[in-house]
Specification:
The protein is an alpha+beta fold and 194 residues long. It has two domains: 56 residues, no CATH class; 119 residues, no CATH class. 40% of the residues lie in helices and 20% in strands. It contains eight helices and nine strands. The protein has a four-stranded mixed β-sheet with strand order 6-7-9-8. A three-stranded antiparallel β-sheet has the order 1-3-2, with helices on both faces. A hairpin with a 2-residue loop joins strand 4 and strand 5. The longest helix is centred in the C-terminal third of the chain and has 16 residues.
């Protein structure tokens, strides 16, 4: 089988070893050769990137491309401090890893020098701000936030119209614990009275 021409490897794409089988009967040995030649960069065992060149050097693959290859195209959602802080509920959390919900893997894994915390849990295909608010309530300890403070901030967000009360209630019923559902109901009641 002929080796890939440079144009056949897509810059910025992440490849699994088995994807290289179209060019070699021994894709593992072939991948190691391409790493030695500087064509590919190994991100993790069995995971390789064909870096996109720039005037400042090789550009690492995007998080979405990395997760697409690692999870083999299965659906996932990225959550955590960046999404939680954007809700305006008073959190300023920072985590040294990216929290990824998916249907395939659990555990902490380093890919291409980036740390990911994978969790196999239920999640919506198109997460809303209300779902992220429920996720934040569920993980207040990871965000370094008080659940009581989050409940009060949630009431203000519902009262001001930043979060929809019915969408919040629906997200809590599908993805929240009983304690979270109770907090959401109290926040909605408080928003109605203010």
């Amino acid at each position: 089988m002929p080796a890939p021409r440079k144009a056949e490897l897509e810059p910025g794409r992440v490849y699994r070893t088995r994807e290289l089988a179209r060019w070699s009967a021994n894709p593992t040995r072939f991948a190691h050769r391409l790493v030695r030649e500087g064509v590919l960069q190994q991100l993790a065992p069995g995971l390789y990137a064909h870096p996109k060149p720039s005037r400042f050097g090789a550009v690492p693959p995007t998080t979405d491309e990395l997760l697409r290859a690692f999870l083999e195209g299965d659906s996932y959602v990225i959550t955590g401090p960046e999404q939680w802080n954007a809700l305006g509920l008073g959190t300023t959390a920072v985590l040294p890893r990216t929290l990824v919900y998916n249907t395939k893997r659990s555990g902490e894994i380093t890919l291409g020098g980036r740390r990911f915390l994978f969790r196999r849990v239920a999640f919506p295909q198109r997460p809303s701000a209300e779902w992220f608010a429920i996720d934040l309530l569920e993980h207040a300890d990871m965000a370094g936030a008080s659940r009581a403070d989050l409940e009060a901030a949630l009431a203000l967000a519902v009262a001001s119209g930043r979060l929809d009360r019915e969408a919040l209630r629906d997200a809590a019923s599908k993805y929240g614990t009983r304690a979270t559902k109770e907090r959401v109901e109290r926040a909605i009641a408080q928003a109605k009275s203010s």
